[in-house]
Write a structure and sequence with these properties.
Elements lengths: L5 H6 L20 H9 L2 H6 L1 H15 L4 E2 L15 E4 L3 E4 L6 H5 L6 H4 L1 H14 L5 E6 L1 H10 L7 H9 L1 H25 L3 E5 L8 H17 L7 E4 L7 H7 L3 E3 L6 H7 L5 E6 L8 H15 L5 E5 L9 H15 L2
Parallel strand pairs: 1-4, 4-5, 5-6, 6-7, 7-8, 8-9
Antiparallel strand pairs: 2-3
The protein binds coproporphyrinogen I.
């Protein structure tokens, strides 16, 4: 497998001819072909049928000319083999019908064998890698323990994390037990994806920004550190969260070769605070892609200027692409990043 792609070199903070770019949720609802597949199949069917998951993974590579693929799956899939009853309801996103909230229920969560319970993801990865022939790298991914715990406990997405924080503050021992179990799942799952062919991994701690730095340090950081330590080490790891201005240094301490940030912080300032010890990924506001192409190009330039041409910048959105985004605007953004950053 070639290891010379622009994306992988940027992950390792090596010089590249131009800044690589991909988009979180690049294989999703803003693509016409995805929406038409979704009229025929449920979201879980798409995820669990390797041929379909591989087809969706490859759509943005052909259409958008991005520099990396990300396997089509969802952060919540590994919860099913742990014994969780998961459903994706129309419009409302994921729902968990048996959220574990007591010590006994947390103790009852099962460890996973990724090659069994999540064989369909590994099969999709192998199929995508055969298609990409090492020319475009494939990113595997997992939710981070905290973000997974929040869905598990709340039973759905949340704004205020009240049930999650109630468990954290009332029964710290039970919280840490849950985080240990989830960390083991994340490690097993990611390392299996690397064995199947993923050439980089991203850990989505999307909601870590809901925590104070003190709480992050006590309730999350030790678990994230263990996850990054136990990952297959020769594959770059991206550590992503949103709302990270209070957490940047702690995230870096937890691990990852690249830190992913959202648009609520200036990329130049974030990277400076990280001492340029790691790469940086981001950070266009996904809503910027709803604007006019000239404005998109200007915003892309501002972010490239903030990165200052240093090796180790991976251009991305600050969070997932919005379903309303016109495909032409994404193509304009990818072209602008490639053209403006070319050395
Ligand atoms: O077709 C549909 O209706 C399903 C929409 C959808 C899609 C396309 C969901 C439901 N998940 C996905 C795919 C997905 N999810 C990918 C695919 C690869 C890619 O192209 O990037 C990835 C990486 C994810 C990761 C994911 N799922 C995260 C982390 C990233 C983030 O957005 O913060 C989270 C939080 C989820 C949970 C989830 N799955 C789906 C939804 C709508 C949600 C969010 C629910 C909420 O609002 O809390």
């Amino acid at each position: 497998m070639k290891d010379t792609s622009v994306f992988l070199r940027a992950c390792r903070q090596e010089q590249t001819e131009y800044t690589p770019v991909w988009l979180m949720r690049q294989a999703g609802r803003f693509l016409k072909e995805y929406r038409s597949l979704r009229r025929r199949y449920s979201f879980l069917t798409l995820c669990k049928t390797p041929e379909l998951a591989a087809e969706v993974t490859l759509l943005p590579i052909e259409r958008l000319k991005v520099d990396a693929a990300i396997i089509f799956a969802d952060i919540l899939l590994p919860l099913e083999p742990m014994g969780i009853d998961l459903e994706f309801t129309k419009g409302d996103g994921p729902v968990i019908h048996n959220p574990p909230r007591s010590r006994a229920e947390v103790e009852g969560l099962k460890a996973i064998k990724a090659e069994e319970g999540l064989r369909f993801v590994m099969e999709a990865i192998r199929m995508v890698c055969r298609e990409l022939k090492g020319e475009i790298p494939l990113i595997g991914f997992s939710g981070a323990p905290f973000t997974l715990a929040s869905y598990l406990i709340e039973g759905r997405g949340t704004r205020d994390f009240t049930l999650t924080k109630t468990l954290m503050y009332q029964d710290a021992a039970c919280w840490h037990l849950l985080m240990e179990k989830l960390s083991e799942v994340v490690i097993t799952y990611l390392n299996a994806q690397v064995r199947a062919g993923a050439q980089a991994v991203q850990v989505f701690d999307s909601w870590a920004g809901a925590l104070s730095p003190r709480d992050y340090e006590e309730f999350v950081l030790p678990h994230n550190r263990r996850v990054f330590q136990e990952l297959t080490s020769d594959v770059p790891a991206i550590h992503f969260a949103t709302g990270t201005s209070g957490l940047l240094e702690l995230m870096e301490e937890a691990g990852g070769d690249v830190i992913g940030i959202d648009w609520r912080i200036d990329l130049g300032e974030a990277w400076r605070r990280l001492g340029y010890k790691v790469g940086i990924q981001g950070n266009l506001d996904p809503a910027a892609l709803l604007g006019l192409p000239e404005r998109i190009e200007r915003c892309a330039k501002e972010i490239l200027d903030a990165a200052g041409g240093r090796p180790g910048h991976i251009f991305n959105l600050g969070h997932g692409v919005l379903p309303q985004t016109p495909q032409g605007n994404v193509i304009a953004m990818v072209e602008a990043v490639h053209h403006l950053s070319r050395k």
